[in-house]
Design brief:
The protein is 30% helix and 15% strand. By secondary structure, it is of the alpha/beta class. Strands 1, 2, 3, 12 and 13 form a five-stranded parallel sheet that branches. It is globular and about 55 Å long. Bound molecules: 2-acetamido-2-deoxy-beta-D-glucopyranose and zinc ion.
Length: 381
């Protein structure tokens, strides 16, 4: 009788579609690359640190437009790694005030375009409480929107970063699994920085600390977490975005900034070579020329190291799935991308429901929308 009751209960639980299976402790036997990886600081493929390429991911958040593109053109266009392949950077772009012809330009330069939501709205409790349906409107719809207006292939859009790094439990990851988004780069770790946490999948329970709860606890097979391994500032405090570090060198002191960056880099390079992130907003490097020059020097250094590579974030996941030693990695063919033309249209004024006192102008590589695109109407039809 008891047993029957138990089975009946189970059936009820299973029948509720929205209850996800709780992630179990990771079983390394069952969880194998390329589809699955347990969270941990062990180097993929069991490689020695000296045989492991040190990947460096430089990322910029928020809208791209005429205000910030010149910094990107000056700082990263035309860079190559020491193996001759084009260097990468990733742009986590939100919709508002984005010039899609510039997104198209970044894509054609070989950089990675990733998603940072349609609305990027405040307060951050909106993101904390966001449901599956909210996340669908913010990210699944943005994938379609970005591909449409920038006229770039939809399958090149793989990554997301949630505004304010404010996680909402399982919701964003469920949406990613359902709409073909491969990795999230929103979750800082402050506990696993030395040695650093490598990317992993959510098939099993994560050992990552949850800095901005709620973090996912369900089993969501195949979705990758690219952890934001925190920096340590001059006061010994951790920070996940460089422009949120508190105790930093004098903002006019280029040498001190260069040293600050290199000190953080060496924790990875001389350690377990977990991917090193330089996560920043463009305004910070544009406002402080000494920081800009220090970053430029650091990138020059990386581009000259035989075993460090400035890459698109999606390339980190590709390498983790198929972890080859650095010698083999160096001699592999460079990444390629398909040229995407931009049939440029300047559109506006476009009215919008969410912002009554202003009309918008949009630069797009598609036909003009009828109204300003927003949540629930990503193409502005
Ligand atoms: C995520 O899913 C697990 C398993 O169903 C559940 O226990 C947990 O409460 C969910 N997290 C949130 C924030 O809803
Ligand atoms: Zn942002």
């Amino acid at each position: 009788m008891k047993r029957l009751l138990f089975l009946a209960l189970l059936a009820v639980v299973w029948a509720q579609e929205d209850v996800l299976p709780l992630a179990e402790p990771c079983d390394p036997e069952a969880c194998q690359l390329p589809a699955c990886r347990c969270s941990g600081t062990d180097i993929p493929g069991g490689l020695e640190p000296r045989h492991t390429p040190q990947m460096v991911t430089v990322t910029f958040d928020d809208g791209v437009n005429v205000v910030n593109i010149q910094t990107y053109r000056n700082l990263v266009y035309g860079r190559r790694n020491s193996n001759g392949c084009p260097a990468g950077t990733t742009y986590y772009i939100n919709h508002e005030y984005t010039d899609y012809t510039i997104v198209n330009e970044l894509y054609n330069q070989g950089f990675e375009i990733a998603l940072h939501s349609v609305s990027h709205q405040t307060p951050d409790t909106y993101w904390k409480e966001a449901t599956y349906d909210d996340m669908k409107l913010e990210f699944a719809d943005q994938k379609i929107q970005m591909s449409h207006f920038a006229n770039i292939p939809i399958d090149t859009l793989k990554g997301i970063r949630i505004p304010f790094l404010q996680m909402n439990g399982n919701a964003s990851f469920q949406v990613m699994a359902d709409y073909g988004l491969e990795y999230d780069c929103s979750m800082p770790t402050v506990n696993q920085i030395n040695p650093g946490l490598w990317p992993y999948t959510l098939d099993y329970a994560s050992t990552q600390d949850c800095v901005i709860p709620e973090c996912p606890t369900a089993s969501i097979p195949g979705v990758w977490v690219l952890p934001m391994v925190s920096w340590v500032d001059l006061g010994g405090f951790t920070c996940s975005m460089v422009d949120s570090c508190f105790s930093v060198p004098t903002l006019t002191d280029e040498d001190a900034w260069f040293e600050f960056i290199v000190t953080n880099f060496e924790r990875h390079y001389l350690g377990n070579r977990a991917p090193f992130g330089f996560y920043i907003h463009e305004w910070y490097v544009a406002s402080y020329p000494a920081v800009y020059r220090a970053l430029e020097r650091f990138l020059d250094m990386v581009n000259n190291l035989p075993d460090a590579f400035m890459v698109n974030s999606a390339e980190v996941i590709d390498w983790v799935k198929d972890p080859v030693p650095v010698d083999e990695y160096r001699s592999r063919p460079c990444r390629t991308w398909e040229f995407a033309p931009c049939p440029h249209q300047s559109c506006g004024p476009l009215t919008s429901d969410h912002n009554e006192w202003g009309a918008y102008w949009m630069q797009v590589c598609a036909a003009c929308p009828n109204t300003y695109p927003w949540l629930g109407n990503p193409l502005g039809q």
